[in-house]
Write a structure and sequence with these properties.
The complex is a heterodimer of chains A (531) and B (784). Chain A has helices at residues 21-26, 336-339, 364-370, 374-381, 384-389, 391-403, 407-411, 416-429, 436-450, 458-503, 509-530; strands spanning 33-36, 41-46, 54-58, 61-65, 72-76, 83-88, 94-99, 104-108, 114-118, 125-130, 136-141, 146-150, 155-160, 167-172, 179-184, 188-193, 199-204, 209-214, 220-225, 228-233, 239-244, 251-256, 262-267, 271-276, 282-287, 292-297, 303-308, 312-317. In chain A, strands 1-28-27-26 form a four-stranded antiparallel sheet, with no helix packed on it. A four-stranded antiparallel sheet of chain A has the order 2-3-4-5, with no helix packed on it. Chain A has a four-stranded antiparallel sheet with strand order 6-7-8-9, with no helix packed on it. Chain A is α+β, with helices and mostly antiparallel strands. In chain A, helix 8 (416-429) runs parallel beside helix 10 (458-503) and helix 10 (458-503) packs antiparallel against helix 11. The relative contact order of chain A is 0.07. Chain B has 784 residues and is mainly beta. Chain B has a five-stranded antiparallel sheet. In chain B, strands 7-8-9-10-14 form a five-stranded mixed sheet, with no helix packed on it. In chain B, a hairpin with a 4-residue loop joins strand 57 (645-651) and strand 58 (656-661). Chain B is globular, with a radius of gyration of 34 Å. Classes of the chains: A alpha+beta (531), B mainly beta (784). At the A-B interface, loops of A face loops of B.
């Protein structure tokens, strides 16, 4: 006599993203604090010294926020025009900022008025930073030049005029006080050494460069421009290492997490992507409400600060790991004595063993199925906690009943309450792709059985109308998706054809670019639909 | 069967053991059942086959104990003989020759009742002659128009009457009155009689019906005033009924595979033994009532103790209506694998002719109900090392779409069985037509390819271990789809990996495509003369550059993969093409006007190694090469292809056949000495108490026997056996007796002679003289 085989609960794959270590890490942030600034937030810089305040450059002001404050602890307002690039010195005492009016201002973090003004640029200064030597300032401007200034004397030391377009980003080396790198809208990245007159290295990014980032080891340089993020190996003379194309709009900002294992890039497409720096695969993705202009990561990843074009500053703080969880009182168990009864009995040599067969434990619905009580089995499977917490069990039982050919018997003969419970379950889970095939047959059978009593109960009628509406919506949605699929197929077929002709020798770059544009439109449409 | 040199086709194993009711011996130690052309004797304790009573040349259609000697058994067969056997030692006692074929057998005292061909029940009086072969002439028809099923006939209390049912009528024949009563109580509907049983102590007949009812008939000695009561539990036809020897219980069984035990006269009390695995076809009880046995439709006999507890299961090879998985060989156990019970794979040892185990693929409770669509295992494949098993199960409902599941099983060394690793639900949108694993045993990754009617083939690979972190449990690597291939929307029918796993050939209707399994690019396409590709296989070893294919337009083609051109092709209607993994040989089964021919050949050689016309009647539907455990050393050219492996094949009549050589058979005969199996008594508490004493006792006896007995000479024997009154005088005998006790000089002289090379002729003559003297003496005593 074989034992009863319990109902198989299929372990269906969970829909949605996979849970990895990264998703757990990056999801462990609280709901964001939103602060309205006066204009688009163009730069965020964290103070290198504790308590790690951060300077937020927005329109004509620079606000300094404390790590947990929602109000600025300090405000610098004395700019004639839009301020750019407010940055701290390595000791956290001084702050430098460029301005649309071409004047670079230096502030004491404690003071109010500018300590020094550096005048020499002829156009807006978008880049200002301290060199590691602490007594010099690097600036780069829309007049195509970058300059080094002496802090105390406010004197221009050197000016480099190698770029042929606006210089919009720059970074100084943390290890060498003479080295700095600038990126420009002329698509180039240039590495300068203050001891020489000319740039020592030039790299071509291919797009107007928006942001630069140096690894802590300074062997690798990351540049962002256009839709691309590129990684360069400086030690190999600026050899391109990887080119990442994960955004579909211009990438505006880059950051590295505290361990240096993850790279973050923010873009106008409203996403922040997290890359693994060993294989440069996207491991996580943040969505924001508006195009992102600036991104800052506090030391130890304590908070993620993002500035957007709609002048909102969003601060996400990390959840505290040591938050005490409410632990329920452990269930009282029978005493030790009860459990140990007869456990320490040692059988004698001549004892005859009578083995007691292990009792098979069956779930409630299985017990009913074993006795062929199909209606009761369905009732137990539709218990409130089961259908809410584990809909897959309920669906498995329905499927099992269908396999036994007794689903109709189980569904028939129900009163209003039982039927409405069943219909609630069907409506709630109908569009879960895992359950749709089973629930569709269930719904069909229910309609077949109860069509003669439709109109007698208001509750049931309401449910049925709801189900009908849902179905119509789903059909409409599926139709849309099919249309998009058709569009995509056309597009792919078209691009493949073009590629072949391009190989044949025709210049088809324009059509290819057009293709990409169309594709982009279609893709956005589809993403909108999905969301 | 068909002779060809010294190679012949033989039936191999797996005959039906559920064809007729088995018989349990009086002491409940043996169970006898008809199995093909022989009667098998199983031990009811160990489930082993103890003897096989061979002798019939046709299907054995009935086995019954001889009432006058409980160690003898009658069997009848379609060859027209009834044989009497001594089953404990497997000796044929008597053969009765008879014209016509026998369908079944009932025994009552000295008469043997047999069913002849024309549905008549015939009484055969056995002449009491000591001859081995007896021609039985004394026939008398008892009943006519009986059903061919033996369960529709039964003897009533002490053999006073005989009851038989057929369709809607019941007939009871009384021997004393020599009169029969016919009852036709029902007008039709589902009341057809299916089986009958008579109460051993009471005038009561139980009948089973098509609608699941059991009726107990009483007072049937008149034509009119009979009565009956109805018992109803079964929901479909009752297939077998049986009373226990004392008549206290009635056992019934049917399609539900539940054994129901009804109390006689207290019919509302019943015991159930549910989930016996398959529909019950016969129920029997041992003569002492200690054991029940149920035969099942899946070729199984279950032995049940009277406390309604299963004690043993004798399982034969399950051969359903169709072997969908084909024949496979488990590389690890070398067992033959095919689908058996619904939703199971069976592992069958060919060497021992024993079913090893069933692997539950579907893992669902089987519902015994007619007309219910069940999950069936339709495809299975092993990888080269036997570490992975892939199975496909499907269930086709009338209205709903096809339900398909692909399951991958890994072999667990600890439990020595297959453990489910991955389930892929709906791997394809339509039926899977072919499935194969990458052959190379040494490669790190195994690839499974499944081809389906939806026009795609998919490659499945074992993924990397799932990412682990603190919150989730560790999950082993699982299989996932690696590549989906298609070719111009054609339907792939077959796929095949090359021996080293570097090439994959997929036959898309008329086109054979060759793919690279590492990069999944289409390397080349080979098209052959029009016709859908039916079989594809790569050559092995030295012929690995060849790819062979057969199509449904009676062509076999061989391509050379180095030149991508057709090497040769021939016109042959090959229904099955298979390759031996141990050698270069290939076998092709060709179906021609009702019979099948076999060709064994090497792709590189023009002449076949072996060919045989009309291997068997009907089509061969599946075949497999199984590697031999011990290599044969046959020098003859025609049988060399059988040295490394054996060829098993299954015909459309579900006969499992193989080829055997003469040398092999001789070896088998030599090794199959009749072993007397010590059917040891079960370890009961009583045995535990007394067994020890008995053992000691036995030990004493043995030691007593070991003391050497005095050599009994001829003289002593003569002395003791001759009656005293004819003996000569004692004084005369004394001297003779004394002499006989002396050590013979001849023996000593012989020993001496051997030692000294016997060159002394004198001593030789001397000894011969003495020898003669002794002979004279014995002659004398005999004469006197």
């Amino acid at each position: 006599m074989a034992s009863f085989k319990p109902t198989q609960i299929p372990d269906l794959p969970k829909l949605g993203e996979k849970i990895t270590e990264d998703t757990l890490y990056w999801k462990n942030y609280k709901a964001p604090v939103q602060i309205k600034e006066f204009g688009a937030v163009s730069n965020i810089d964290f103070s290198p010294v504790s308590p790690h305040n951060f300077a937020v450059t927005a329109f004509t002001r620079i606000h300094i926020y404390g790590p947990f404050s929602q109000e600025p602890v300090k405000t610098f307002t004395r700019f004639k025009d839009t301020a750019y690039c407010g940055r701290f010195r390595s000791d956290g005492q001084l702050l430098v900022a460029g301005c649309e009016d071409s004047v670079v201002r230096l502030y004491d973090v404690g003071g109010k008025a500018a300590l020094r003004m550096y005048k020499g640029h002829t156009k807006a200064v978008h880049v200002a930073d301290f060199t590691t030597g602490r007594y010099q300032i690097l600036t780069a401007s829309d007049d195509y030049t970058c300059r080094l200034w002496d802090i105390p004397n406010a004197v221009e030391l050197t000016a480099y005029q190698e770029h042929t377009d606006y210089v919009r980003c720059g970074v100084t080396s943390k290890l060498n006080r003479d080295l700095f790198i600038t990126g420009s809208y002329d698509h180039t990245l240039r590495v300068f050494d203050s001891r020489t007159e000319k740039s020592v290295m030039t790299m071509d990014h291919g797009q107007p460069v928006e942001s630069l980032l140096l690894y802590p080891s300074e062997g690798l340089l990351v540049s962002a421009g256009g839709r691309y993020v590129k990684v360069w190996d400086l030690l190999k003379g600026g050899q391109p290492l990887v080119s990442l194309k994960n955004h579909h709009k211009t990438v505006t900002c880059l950051a590295l997490n505290s361990s240096g294992q993850r790279l973050l890039s923010a873009s106008l497409d409203r996403h922040v992507k997290v890359y693994n720096t060993t294989n440069y695969k996207v491991v996580h993705n943040f969505d924001y409400a508006a195009a992102i202009l600036s991104l800052g990561l506090a030391p130890d990843d304590e908070s993620i600060v993002v500035g957007m074009t709609n002048s909102i500053l969003s601060i996400k703080h990390r959840k505290n790991l040591e938050e005490p969880k409410e632990t329920s009182k452990p269930r009282r168990r029978p005493s030790y004595r009860v459990f140990m009864k007869g456990k320490n009995f040692v059988p004698k040599q001549d004892d005859y063993f009578v083995s007691k067969p292990a009792r098979q434990h069956l779930a409630k619905y299985d017990k009913q199925l074993k006795r062929f009580n199909v209606s009761k089995a369905l009732d137990t499977a539709l218990e409130a906690w089961l259908r809410r917490k584990k809909p897959e069990v309920t669906v498995a039982v329905i499927k099992e009943l269908d396999r036994r050919g007794t689903l109709k018997n189980a569904l028939a003969g129900r009163d209003e309450e039982q039927l409405s419970r069943l219909l609630c379950f069907v409506i709630g889970n109908f569009f879960d792709t895992r359950f749709t095939p089973v629930l569709a047959t269930t719904a069909e059978i229910v309609l077949d059985i109860y069509q003669c009593v439709i109109g007698q109960s208001a509750v049931i009628d309401r449910h049925l109308i709801h189900l009908q509406k849902l179905l119509e919506k789903e059909i409409y949605y599926q139709k849309d998706l099919m249309e998009i699929l058709g569009m995509l197929d056309t597009m792919f077929a078209f691009s493949l054809l073009r590629k072949e002709t391009a190989v044949a020798g025709l210049p088809e770059c324009h059509t290819a670019a057009a293709n990409v544009e169309i594709f982009k439109i279609v893709f956005e449409q589809s993403t909108c639909l999905y969301t | 069967m068909v002779e060809y040199g010294d190679i012949r086709v033989v039936y191999r194993g797996g005959s039906k053991i559920n064809f007729r009711k088995p018989v349990i011996s009086n002491d409940s130690r043996f169970l006898l059942c008809a199995s093909g052309e022989s009667v098998k004797v199983f031990s009811s304790v160990t489930e082993e086959c103890v003897h096989e009573l061979r002798g019939h040349t046709g299907q054995v259609t009935g086995v019954l104990l001889r009432p006058s000697n409980h160690l003898q058994v009658y069997s009848c067969s379609t060859d027209g003989t009834v044989r009497l056997w001594d089953f404990t030692d497997g000796i044929l006692v008597r053969v009765k020759n008879e014209k016509g074929t026998f369908r079944t057998l009932v025994v009552k005292q000295v008469c043997v009742f047999v069913f002849a061909e024309l549905f008549q029940l015939v009484a055969v009086n056995l002449p009491q002659t000591p001859d081995q072969l007896v021609e039985a002439r004394d026939l008398s028809a008892v009943l006519s128009d009986v059903s061919s099923n033996p369960s529709t006939i039964a003897f009533g209390r002490g053999g006073e009457y005989l009851a038989s049912v057929n369709n809607l009528k019941m007939e009871i024949y009384f021997f004393k009155k020599n009169k029969s009563y016919r009852f036709e109580p029902f007008n039709g509907g589902k009341n057809t009689f299916t089986c009958i049983a008579c109460h051993p102590k009471d005038d009561c007949v139980a009948t089973g019906h098509d609608d699941g009812k059991i009726r107990l008939w009483r007072n049937f000695k008149q034509k009119k005033e009979y009565t009956y009561s109805t018992l109803h539990w079964h929901h479909s036809a009752v297939s077998s009924l049986c009373f226990t020897p004392e008549g206290t219980n009635l056992l019934s069984g049917g399609v539900e595979s539940v054994l129901v035990q009804w109390r006689y006269n207290q019919e509302n009390q019943k015991d159930f033994l549910p989930r016996l695995g398959a529909a019950i076809t016969h129920v029997t009880v041992s003569p002492d009532g200690a054991l029940f046995s149920t035969s099942h439709s899946d070729n199984k006999i279950t032995i049940i103790q009277s406390c309604v507890k299963v004690s043993a299961v004798i399982q034969g090879l399950v051969k359903g209506e169709n072997v969908t998985t084909g024949l496979l060989v488990d590389p690890r156990s070398k067992a033959l694998v095919l689908n058996g019970r619904p939703g199971h794979l069976q592992f069958y040892s060919l060497q021992r002719d024993k079913l090893l185990f069933h692997l539950d693929i579907v893992q669902q409770e089987y519902i015994h109900e007619a007309g219910l669509e069940q999950f069936e295992v339709v495809r299975a494949a092993f990888d080269a090392s036997g570490l992975w098993l892939a199975t496909v199960e499907e269930r086709k409902q009338k209205s709903a779409e096809l339900e398909l599941n692909l399951k991958l099983w890994s072999f667990d060394e600890q439990t020595q069985s297959f453990v489910l690793n991955t389930t892929v639900s709906a791997p394809h949108e339509a039926r899977i037509t072919a499935m194969c694993f990458s052959q190379a045993a040494d490669s790190q990754t195994t690839t499974l390819v499944s081809a389906s009617r939806d026009g795609h083939f998919k490659a499945w690979q074992l993924g990397l271990p799932a990412h682990t972190d603190g919150t989730q449990e560790y999950e082993g690597p699982s299989w996932s789809c690696d590549f989906v291939g298609a070719y111009h929307g054609l339907v792939p029918r077959c796929c095949c990996f090359s021996a080293d796993g570097s090439l994959l050939a997929v036959g898309f209707q008329e086109v054979v495509t060759v793919w690279n399994p590492t990069s999944w690019e289409l390397l080349t396409t080979l098209s052959q003369p029009p016709g859908d590709v039916r079989n594809l296989c790569f050559g092995q070893l030295s012929c690995s550059k060849y790819l062979l294919g057969s199509n449904n337009k009676k062509m076999v083609c061989c391509w050379n993969l180095l030149t991508c051109s057709l090497e040769w092709s021939t016109s042959m209607d090959v229904s099955l093409l298979l390759v031996d993994s141990r050698s270069e040989n290939m076998a092709a089964f060709c179906c021609q006007d009702g019979s099948t021919d076999l060709f064994v050949f090497k792709p590189s050689e023009p002449r076949p190694l072996f060919s045989q016309k009309a291997v068997c009647s009907g089509r061969v539907i599946h075949a497999v090469f199984t590697p031999r455990e011990v290599m044969l050393e046959s020098s003859e050219e025609s049988s060399q292809w059988l040295n490394r492996s054996q060829l098993y094949f299954l015909t459309e009549f579900m006969d499992l056949l193989t080829f055997s050589t003469k040398a092999e058979e001789e070896k088998l005969m030599a090794s199959s000495k009749q072993l007397v199996i010590d059917d040891t008594v079960a370890m009961t508490p009583f045995y535990l108490l007394l067994g020890k004493h008995r053992h000691e006792h036995l030990g004493n006896e043995e030691s007593a026997e070991r003391t050497p007995l005095p050599q009994s000479s001829v003289a002593i024997k003569e002395l003791l056996q001759t009656p005293a009154h004819v003996l000569p005088a004692t004084s005369f005998l004394c001297s003779m007796f004394a002499k006989s006790l002396l050590i013979s000089v001849t023996e000593t002289s012989r020993r001496v002679g051997h030692r000294f090379n016997l060159n002394n002729s004198d001593s030789d003559s001397n000894s011969s003289f003495r020898f003669r003297f002794f002979e004279d003496m014995t002659c004398f005593t005999r004469a006197s």
